[in-house]
Amino acid sequence: MFVSIVILGFSVLLFLYWFRYTCLLILSTKTAKDYTRQVAAANQLEFPAIRVHLQRAVPESGMDSLQRSLEKDYQLLTGLLRHAAQFQVGGLSLEQRMLMVDYKAMKAWFALARRFSKAAYAQQALQEMSDIVSHFANAMGERAAVGSRA
Asked: pTM of whole model > 0.85?
């Protein structure tokens, strides 16, 4: 019984490690053309300005407003992606689903870090959340570009 619990715990830890590594790898890839600025401007998204703020030290009092703005951008982009996925055969990609889970995990990490830890951890969570929103904006721009060529 004890060995089974140890194996199960080790397997869960390896899965979490794989999941985090894969999400960070997805976020680090660059596409041939970056559509994030066009999508952000067309939809009045705030994440490009948030990313600039996050390059500097953000005061703790401003982190909650940044998180709310990111959440608004995330909700808009995921809604657009889900709506666009209805018109595609495959729907949302596995990458996008994984990043949606990662966004929720970073949102929870932000809440924990904000309450119990240093501001630097909360800022790192916000940075990754903004990277995910940026990735979704780029994916939306790619879909729009492909749709306009067809």
From this structure: yes
